[in-house]
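Hi R.,

Here's the chain you asked about this morning:
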Amino acid sequence: MGYLHQHPGEPGLRNGDPTPQQPLQDTAVPPGRPVIGSAGWYYEANDDHGTVWKVNRGKEGGWDVVLDWAPYVSERLVLIGEDGKSAGRYYTITIGADTLTKSLSDLRTADGWNDFSDDSGAASRAIREVLINIITDQGKRLPRTPVVAHTGWHRLPDVGLTYVYADGRSYPSGRSVRLIGAPEPVRQAAVPLERAATDAECRRAVADIACHGWASLMALAVGARSLAYSLRPVSAAFVLDAAPNSGKTSAANTARSLLLTPRPHAWPPVPTKGMSSTATDIECALDFEGDMPTLLDDIPLTRASSASQVREMEKKLELVIRAAGNATEIKGRRNRDLTAKPANRVRSIPVIAAQMLPATMQESLYRRSVVIYLSRDGGEVDWRWYKAGGGQSLTVPLRTIGDKVIAHLHALPDADGYLADLERRAFEQLGAHVEAVLPEPGDTMDGVITAAAGMLSGLGLVAAVTEMSMSELVDVVAAPLAASLVRQAACMEAQSTAQDGVATAVGEVLRRAFSRGRLHIRDEKGVVRPAVDGQVEQDQGLARRRDGSGWEGKGPAAYWLPQRGPALGITTKNLNMLLKASGDSRVNCYVDRSLPDALLQADAILRNTSQKDRVASHRVRVGTENLRLLLLKPELIWDF
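And here is the predicted structure, written out as tokens:
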């Protein structure tokens, strides 16, 4: 930029010394540019030097040098939101030896400046406000460069539909767009290979996959269909429930290899996240990987896993699968002023590899998933072939197929209609096999079968870019996939029965506890007395005192709360103590932490709608005490 420069010989600052030196005496021409928004301040900024001045209000007039450097802005980046409008600003800033990209919101905090090693003198808030005005003043004279925060399809201003890869490339190439937030391993894995495969090599690779396990070909279908997710979503998760060393990761990586090839080794590709990562890490990684094959690898449960480990995995599955199946935010977010904040979303078909799914995984999560079951020597995946170098041989052809699918989708005049037709064809072919083994799938399985066909339609994309037959590829997968869906239907029925059994068991345990004097009723004020109309005293765990002066009960207390539903309130600790003492296998396996959620899932307790973080329990005033109680539905215990 053509800013005015400080004249040779004019006084300045020693590097790092923010103390004003001698003022400039030439009052006729102000130095540099005025800082818009900071009256009396001026600056000049270039990529190799800069200066910041302030008007000297004293008798002599002139300008004082406040900083012997100034931030130089080389790019103005505008974040594109979900609606295609501006959702934030970023700037590429050079200060001394550092050139970094920072958001405007980061620059408003002291932490936003910590990565610059040559920003001496910018410690005060007042100086930082001037520097921000200098940055925005330069930025307004630069062209707007669109910025996106996740990979995949975006409708960019002026240029339209564009696919953004994890390494920042775009299709069509040459689009002015920047990607932020790419993890370095994923970015490196997305860098193009030195060559593309020939058409014959691509067809041979698909044929090799088909010959070495139907589950691998199904995974390839899921990966290809993921490339079109935001053009027409498939709202479900794809789960590989597999014995150890059965090839689940190899199958999942067949899909992942459509876009990623880690260096220096060609196999296996880097996963999205491991399921041992925190829920927040998983959430952010899924939000970044849009319209690309994902992999959450792997759920490390065994039959010896503790209840807390099982519960942790259930929580993560709940977050991922429910958000994918419902097409909702993974977790709601709020700004400091409690206004809604854009939250992370599942932007592709989540692929989850599990050594073992939690035995207590809800039936509602199965309904939002397509699960395939792998055994070590069942032929679903020829893991020996992958291990012997088969996976590495797929690297170049699969990357070529992935690029071709993206180009194919971009060229479609009506992507939604085209994908809907592929789904219809896949459903018809799969449906014939499902009907043979599951003639009455029921309402809950209808959605699963539709989702499975949607995923299977990805083979139509593979066939289109390799000039192969979609029908022949689908035929490899359809029969064994139908058999797997039968097994999934059995798991769903078992889970539904088990959840219904929890509520019934809790009612039976409490009914016996009241009648045998191991639990007693108190009213909403904490007074021991018969409080439930229409129920005899013994069914409320009460007996008259010998002197006739009142009532007494043994064991822990349960509180009758007629204004809460009505409901029967009891602490988690006391309820779980009774359940464990009962010996009932349906309900004596929970720890205190997992019991409330299990009862909520079983529809045995009332949901707390006022506290998002404590939806299963309620804070209740009983007499002079504030108790945290589970509110049980009384019809589980008594007939009214």
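One quick note: The chain is about 35% helix and 20% strand.

Cheers,
M.
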